[in-house]
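question for whoever is on the cluster today: can someone run the full assembly for these? two chains, 634 residues total. i dont have access anymore since they changed the login thing
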Amino acid sequence: MSADASAGDASTGDGAAIDDAPRPATYYHLARAVLYREFLIFVRYPANAIGGIVVSLFFFAALFLGGQLLAGQALTDSIEGIVVGYFLWTLSVGAYSSVSNDIGSEVQWGTLERHITTPFGFAPVALLKGVAKVVRTFLTSAVILAVMLLATGTRLNLAPLTVVAVAGLSITSVLGLGFAAGGVTVLYKRIGSWLNLLQFGFVALISAPVFDLPWTRVLPLAHGSAMLQRAMVDGIRLWEFPPADLALLVAVALGYLVGGYLVFQLATRRARRLGVLGDY
Amino acid sequence: MARSATSARGGPRERDDTDAARDESTPERSPPPALAVEGLTKRFGDGDDAVTAVDDVSLTVERGSVVGLLGPNGAGKTTLIKCALGIVIPDAGSVRVFGTDVRDGRRAAYADVDAMLEGARNDYWRLTVRENLRYFATISGVDPDSVAARHDRLLDRLDLADKADTPVRDLSRGMKQKVSLASVLAGGAELVFLDEPTLGLDVESARTLRAELRRLAAEEGLTIVVSSHDMTTIEAVCDRVVMLSNGRVVADDTVEALLGGTDRDVVRVASPDLDRETVAGLREAFEVVDVDRDAHPPAVTVVAGGDRIYDLTDALRAAGVTVSDIRTVQPDLEDVFLDRTGTVPSAAAGGESS
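^ ran it for u. tokens below:
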């Protein structure tokens, strides 16, 4: 700020105005701003989170009670697997829809452009937003998991590091899908709501037969889901997994994240060419 | 913002066109202008449906000046702004922001430019006013703590200090618009685009916003490009006006020069004696622009510049007209626009006008 401009401000009695030379923001400031915003919205508008938890639990209750009627003992035997699978599904849906819906909303509000035209570039902002969404989803899904365990009387291995690492990497691939869907929404606004149906496809991915069809391991979620089952049901710790399994988990996560981001980038580039970015 | 000191001190507002021309011809001696657009062209669609939104537009905006883009809806104002921001990729031409090509080094250019786009919220309604300023300052590349005092000052000037900790969604429309403006200015961008900033505001809020814009430009040394179809906003805020019609620049000059340049010195004469016959007589010797028979008393508007005013009074006396009222009609930007394009900028849109 110029001294000239501040001088005229002496009447406000704001002495600090004289030397408020702006300092450039670092990635630390960026991370703080993005995460703090997510936090504020989370704590200030808890109804969204609570609503999501209630709906998820309602679906689980329907699944559990209906399953007991139909399958009886067979369901009770596999209840651990179902709880783990459902936990991963709520995580996936949370990560996917929060990212793709968020992009949709930001387009509507005209705030997406401001994130695209940031000197940081969109990628770090998007990544931080993704991290914030994942953290948030872990919090709500943890509540859902706790209620499921209590209601069904199931016991699982909940080694935090293992569960967070395996589940986190599993849903990173979904985060990539969320970015891709968000990008498509920027271009074709009406398709956006249809893409939400994709989350039901996650059920198939989570229960993919990775032992019979090993190639399904490269699909999002499938390999991670199998590892999460072993971790939570059989009590395998993160460092007890074969390195190849861990490497594949990381590779799939990064592959879909980068791929999804590239789709988003291509879509926004096309949107800029067509002039549909910032069309309210 | 480091640049704002230079622009405020230099008082570029007082510069005239010759200065601007000299700046352009000696780029090595003076810093590059805030905005330099050259041969910008953007077409949307293909084949018969193709629309040329911006057609070979070139213009320069000097640092510290406030320039208006005036034109009806569809004239290309918004596309021009979006091209300058890099939100729309042009088909041809270049845009430089403080000397940085938007296409090559967008990230470098983005640090100095921000925009309030028409119809957009531009901020988060679920955050408070201050949270928005801090968030968008960071996004624009500025540590929010280092500009906290500036934010206080900005809120003070925009009369938002009491509402600093109120979520934006709880504010009135006029205040939301001001928060949107504040969030755009929060990061200290030196070149700010404001697309229809008074659209949808009531008369009072629009007037306040215009006054604030003028003050902010002067005190903060900002370079502002205001796009509007509303002449009142442009006339009140801008030093210079670029008129756009069908994607082309039809005029680019200071407000005074444009208003002075209309060769239509128009006089409005009111008299109870202005009957049909008298008016017909006047039409033979003068260009009668308008006849208002419903007025009390009836009035005619006649082009009578320079010495023609004497001819007019002579003719009125000869016709036995007792004049109740005679006044010159000041041309406004709408007249200028009409002269140059044959259309009225506000014709295509309904919006705030006061």
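summary bc i know u wont read the tokens: Confidence is low (pLDDT under 50) at residues 1-18 of chain A. Chain A touches chain B through 48 residues (CB under 8 Å).
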